[in-house]
Amino acid sequence: MKKLILLSLFLLFQAAAPAQITFEKLIDTLGSNYPFDIQQTLDGGYIYCGRSTDTLHHAILVKLDTIGQISWARTFHDSAGGFFQYIEQMPDSGYLAAGHLFSSGNHNWLLRFDKNGDTLWTRKLPPGGTNSYCHEIASTAQGSLYGLYGQGGPALSYLPYLSVALSNGVYLTTKTYAYPIYANGMGMTGTNDNGFALTGFHNVSLPTGATNVFLIRTNAYGDTLWTKSYDLLHEDIAHAIQQTSDSGFIISGQAYDPSLGYQQTFLLKTNAAGDSLWTKYYYGNSGLINELPLKQIPGGGYLLAGSHLDTLNNNLDVFLIRTNDSGDTLWTKKYGTGNAEAALSLDLCADGGFIIGANDYTNQPNGTTYLIKTDSLGHQLGSTGLASAEFDPEEFRLFPNPNRGLFTVRHPLDQGPHGELLISRINGQVVGRKTLHPSGETEIQATDLAPGIYLVNIHSKLRKYAGRLMIKR
After folding, report:
1. pTM for the full model?
2. What CATH number has the domain spanning 397-471?
3. What residue ranges in 167-314 does DSSP mark as E strands?
4. Model confidence over 424-465: pLDDT tens digits?
């Protein structure tokens, strides 16, 4: 049901929207971090769910308007904390959230909310075994059944499990899937015949750590229909899966390449029977992050988000890859605040653009929610939050960046006597300004500013430029 609503929104409003809103946001309200799922809502805004670290590890739900401003935020918890992994808007404009409770044997958790985030009911579902951990939630095509998927069991003996419940939270059954050594359940999707498809990785050699990707096809109640295993490189780990329009599947993940000495991100395409059709590899040196969200694009091709290690600056950037139906790259984009960011969730938007939910690890150990709304080509040109316009790096450059409050701005000579540089906080408050030097380079002294991320804007009669500045001590 979630997929049908999203596809209808995407097709209905893509042509009608005259402009594509873009923005970039850091959100720390109520300790918000780890936006494990994000969805565009029926009113054109967004809702995301994840974790809050204001006191315990509480689950959090945050509603945003069309430009990324917070409409409301709610946290939910019991005595031991928990988090949300899944959010879906229902036909009555309310929401269904699912996740994980740490107390009483690590329960699965279903909650129903009205459109304002007020709780209507809460259900605790049995754990999927000792030390169980819920990784993913999905609904069947009819939206009447929900699967909560993860792994449980003693260390190095984990096995995947699937718990099934009705949309009103009534628990039905739990199934466990056996492998000779151990296996981790990572990604799942509902299928067009009202079943589920489960993926993850299973160990094939405990001493060497070699793992293969698995795909388990079930009916609505978790009974196995068939299974497949894929041996790609060496340490193969699947993260996400989606059923494609041809009834096959697309799987994203990472695989360690011994010949190169690092991991590569991959897309694996299968037919409806699970037979491998092709595998494509992308960024190397990618960080092993819990999610590699992907979407099939209406009209053809795929969209994949993740994190790429920038070896030059020793940090992780969020990446977005657009491919054709064969997995060949059409374009790539990178986003970041100059630190370490991990992409966790992804959604297609009604205007043809995309929204990415990520975590920024500037404030260790838990970080801050980092949201990126792009246009249909992955461009991020907005003027809210951390937005920055695209520019020629030879025309406009901040260096060094990060810095301690002393830096130089390179800018075009045609800014003229009316050119002015503004430094502002993320909330838009201007904290510094200076007239541009006619030489094309202006030195800035901002040692009185507190450490953090700032926006640097140049305004003149001819052009506007924007960039991000990080001040450290």
Report:
1. 0.76
2. 2.60.40.3080
3. 171-176, 183-190, 196-205, 210-218, 224-230, 236-243, 249-257, 262-270, 276-284, 294-296, 302-310
4. 765 456 788 888 888 888 899 998 887 766 777 775 544 556
